[in-house]
Design goal:
- About 45% of the residues lie in helices and about 15% in strands.
- It is α/β, with parallel strands linked by helices and about 250 residues long.
- Strands 1-2-3-4-5-6-7-8 form an eight-stranded parallel beta barrel, surrounded by six helices.
- Helix 2 links the parallel strand 2 and strand 3.
- The protein binds phosphoenolpyruvate.
């Protein structure tokens, strides 16, 4: 089974009309991608984009959040069951913007991961260190803790459904990309952690994506690293030609 995935994270960008046009253009540019392609779209567009990609092999849709509870009086929230019923396959969890702006910590993210998995949703779990941590050389300690707290309580069958995205916070939306070596080093470290906890079969089948200013110009060299299985792409996923080029750069 290929580990290769290119996922776009649109964040709070695109109206429904713009989102529809964007996906249609990407589908026409890359009708048969050699990698799995996932569109992480705003909640209001989930069903529309799912309908557009259904029937296109290798294309899927991700929500950008879920609530950790099953249902109830949580105004404005979306549950895992709602997404599954709408045909959505993935959910992005642990993104640094939600950690920073919505106060999500690893305990809450672990609850959301568990809820997602119990409903059959595949989490794209984001982790990554801030600049001061990288400058102090403590990135493996911090990312290691994020991996441990979010993922170690999962059972092996659940872990098989998880995609990991390593996203150094200092590289997100800044135009600064981790070097190929920095990315490979951290991805190999994460894979070793997954091996130690869940065994090499699961670790060798886990997709570990790099995120942080991935662009058409740097995607191929990042994706060429042996433990970099693709990318989680923010800004560059909003441009059809650029995102199509990143899809083509995947191994
Ligand atoms: C992201 O937010 O997941 C991301 C990687 O953003 P960007 O590609 O814009 O750095």
């Amino acid at each position: 089974m290929s580990r290769s995935i290119v996922a776009g994270n649109w964040k709070m960008n695109t109206t429904p009309s713009e989102g529809k046009a964007l996906v249609q253009k990407i589908l026409s540019e890359v009708p048969q991608p050699g990698t799995r392609v996932i569109f992480g779209v705003p909640a209001i567009q989930l069903m529309q984009i799912q309908q557009i990609v259904s029937g296109h092999a290798n294309y899927a849709v991700a929500a950008q959040n879920i609530h950790e509870k099953e249902s109830g009086a949580y105004t404005g929230e979306i549950s895992a069951a709602m997404l599954v019923d709408a045909g959505i396959e993935y959910v992005i969890l642990g993104h640094s913007e939600r950690r920073d702006y919505n106060g999500e910590d690893d305990d809450l993210i672990n609850l959301k991961l568990t809820t997602a998995l119990e409903h059959g949703l595949k989490p794209i779990y984001c982790c990554g260190e801030k600049l001061d941590i990288r400058e102090a050389g403590n990135q493996e300690v911090v990312v290691g803790r994020q991996i441990e707290q979010a993922l170690y309580s999962l059972d092996p069958e659940q872990m098989k459904q998880v995609v990991i995205a390593y996203e150094p916070v200092w590289a997100i939306g800044t135009g600064k990309t981790a070097t190929n070596e920095q990315a490979q080093q951290m991805h190999a470290y994460i894979r070793r952690m997954i091996t130690n906890q869940f065994g090499s079969d699961i670790a060798n089948n886990t997709s570990i994506l790099y995120g942080g200013s991935v662009k058409p110009g740097n995607a191929a060299e990042l994706f060429a690293e042996s433990d970099v299985d693709g990318g989680l792409v923010g800004g560059a996923s909003l441009d059809a030609a650029g995102f199509a080029a990143i899809i083509r750069a995947a191994r």
